[in-house]
Design brief:
Blueprint: H1 5-18, H2 21-34, H3 39-51, H4 55-68, H5 73-85, H6 89-102, H7 107-119, H8 123-136, H9 141-153, H10 157-170, H11 175-187, H12 191-204, H13 209-221, H14 225-232, E1 262-266, H15 271-277, H16 281-287, E2 290-295, H17 300-306, E3 311-314, E4 330-333, H18 336-341, H19 359-373, E5 377-382, H20 391-394, H21 402-405, E6 410-414, H22 425-430, E7 435-436, H23 447-455, E8 459-463, H24 466-474, E9 477-482, E10 506-510, H25 516-528
Parallel strand pairs: 1-2, 1-4, 2-3, 5-6, 5-8, 6-7, 8-9, 9-10
Helix pairs in contact: 1-2, 1-3, 2-3, 3-4, 3-5, 4-5, 5-6, 5-7, 6-7, 7-8, 7-9, 8-9, 9-10, 9-11, 10-11, 11-12, 12-13, 13-14, 15-24, 19-23
């Protein structure tokens, strides 16, 4: 005898909470067979699809469910969560607002709206939403930890500590509270305490991939790559992961010898990380019989010139026809080359440049820029990392660059990419600084012309972004403004060094919360010594 819908729905919830997604889905389907528009069942079906990382399906179910049940705010909220997973901040905020239109006082919906506002970089709107959530429930743990994260990002560590103390008093063993305390300790520079707290999170919630990844990141920040890489490998389990496995029909490479073997290397994460991973590419090219590299199409021309003994193809879905599974004995990601071949990198001397720009184009640009700017010293500036989840923390405000732009005898070249590419133009003009934004170079397109532009310069001053990795890998002197410790920490810059083992051309300037102006004045003074 078939289960009645109420019993099936309770079973679906139980199975979902136990992590048995197929059983939960089957139970939901039983409910929907009798009541196709049941909002509880539709909402759970969307959550099941979300848990399986089937975001398109999850969004479709939640949107259709809300259309037939416009009085049921949880469906709009669930759609917002799915959009958050995809970093579609604007759409997520709109979905959470739909839920709030039906239930304006919901701490849950207000907290989720705050997370969407944080994602799109509106700190004031995010803080206001967290404040509203906590006005409804002053002990609401998710809002306290969320606001603490925002406070850490903006350097208000004492206020963050206050929120986390309140959250800890009511939920001391909550994974979210423990993780929040860990990030706070990281921002305060207490890496060992942060590691211990992330370890506690992993013990309390073994399935929480973020905790294991962050535990690994602490070790990587400390330069202990061999100790942290196994945890860091859990990054593919993150809900929002940019790193999905490819080529499961080809055995993964475990780092063993490659003599006489064929290896397929594919890209993961962002363009900057692809350039960083490529620092180890020549080691496998020299050893293996045959190496093919799947790279972002924006990198293929540059990589082909830089690694002529490897086949470089654009990474597409489905894969390029040249990537036949029976060609390769092993596959690995470009970034995992670090885990296999650079575990002692923190103790090595800096690497020589390994990317090669079009030298003729670089030389032509150099002559043209010197002539147009009437300056012998050409300096590129880049001030934000627009695609990063932590863009607000990685970027340096336009106003802070005035001391640099005021230096005489320097010709400045815009090497920023993204929507804010022209943000410094007005400031440079107001200061009468020799400033050039070259319309012939599109940093958002094929990176080979951009690489030639970077190679044409004497110096690049940049935040941690693709420009930093690309310029340094080309051998152009690069001053990197490394973000403060905290949620924007990039492990590969480590914690206490001014040089980089990845790039001999890089010099690291460590930022501190609220002290960008002081740091840029120091950079300006050092730049003045170059003229």
């Amino acid at each position: 005898m078939a289960a009645d819908p109420d019993t099936a729905l309770r079973a679906a919830v139980d199975r979902f909470q136990q992590g048995d997604l197929p059983a939960a889905k089957a139970a939901c389907e039983t409910v929907l067979k009798h009541a196709p528009h049941n909002p509880l069942a539709l909402n759970l079906m969307a959550l099941i699809a979300r848990a399986a990382k089937k975001w398109g399906k999850a969004e479709e179910i939640a949107a259709a469910g809300f259309k037939t049940n416009p009085e049921y705010p949880d469906l709009a909220n669930t759609r917002g969560l799915v959009l958050l997973d995809q970093r579609r901040w604007e759409d997520a905020a709109a979905a959470f607002q739909q839920a709030l239109d039906l239930d304006p006082a919901s701490p849950l919906y207000l907290g989720n709206l705050a997370r969407a506002e944080m994602g799109r970089g509106d700190v004031l709107a995010a803080e206001a939403a967290f404040d509203k959530a906590l006005a409804q429930d002053s002990t609401y743990s998710a809002a306290l930890t969320g606001r603490a994260s925002l406070l850490i990002q903006t350097g208000r560590l004492e206020d963050a500590e206050r929120d986390l103390a309140i959250a800890s008093a009511s939920a001391p063993d909550s994974p979210e509270v423990l993780a929040g305390r860990a990030v706070l300790d990281l921002a305060k520079g207490d890496l060992d305490s942060a590691y211990a707290l992330f370890d506690q999170v992993s013990a309390v919630s073994p399935d929480m991939a973020d905790a294991a990844v962050n535990r690994g990141l602490i070790r990587l920040l400390q330069g202990h790559i061999s100790d942290g890489w196994e945890d860091y490998a859990q990054r593919r389990r993150r809900r929002w992961a940019r790193s999905f496995g490819r080529h499961s029909d080809i055995p993964p490479w475990d780092g063993a010898g490659l003599g006489g073997k064929s290896l397929l290397v594919w890209s993961e994460q962002g363009l900057g990380e692809a350039v960083l991973g490529a620092s180890q590419l020549q080691t496998v090219i020299d050893e293996a019989e045959d190496v093919s590299v799947e790279a972002n199409e924006r990198l293929t021309t540059l990589f082909s010139r830089s690694f002529p003994n490897a086949e470089v193809v654009p990474q597409t879905d489905p894969p390029d026809r040249r990537i036949a599974p029976d060609r390769f004995e092993f596959q690995t990601s470009l970034f995992d080359l670090i885990g296999h071949r650079a575990q002692d990198i923190a103790h090595r001397g800096p690497r020589s440049p390994y990317l090669k720009a079009d030298s003729s184009q670089a030389e032509n640009l150099r002559h043209a820029y010197r002539r147009e700017l009437n300056a012998d010293l050409l300096v590129g500036l880049s001030w934000e990392s627009p695609q990063a989840l932590t863009a607000g923390q990685k970027g340096v405000p336009v106003e802070a660059w005035k001391p640099v732009l005021s230096q005489a005898g320097v010709g400045f070249v815009n090497v920023q990419y993204g929507p804010g590419r022209l943000a410094l133009d007005d400031t440079a003009r107001a200061l009468s600084a020799p400033w050039l934004t070259d319309p012939a170079i599109d940093p958002g397109g094929d990176l080979d012309p951009f690489a030639a532009q970077l190679a044409a310069l004497d110096l690049v001053i940049t935040v941690s972004n693709t420009t930093a990795h690309l310029a340094a890998a080309l051998g152009t002197e690069t001053w990197v403004l490394v973000p403060p410790l905290g949620t924007a920490s990039m492990w590969y810059w480590f914690t206490d060094r001014t040089d980089s083992p990845w790039y001999s051309a890089a010099r690291l300037y460590r930022r501190r919360h609220g002290q960008d102006q002081d740091l840029l004045e120091r950079v300006a003074a050092e730049l003045a010594q170059r003229t």
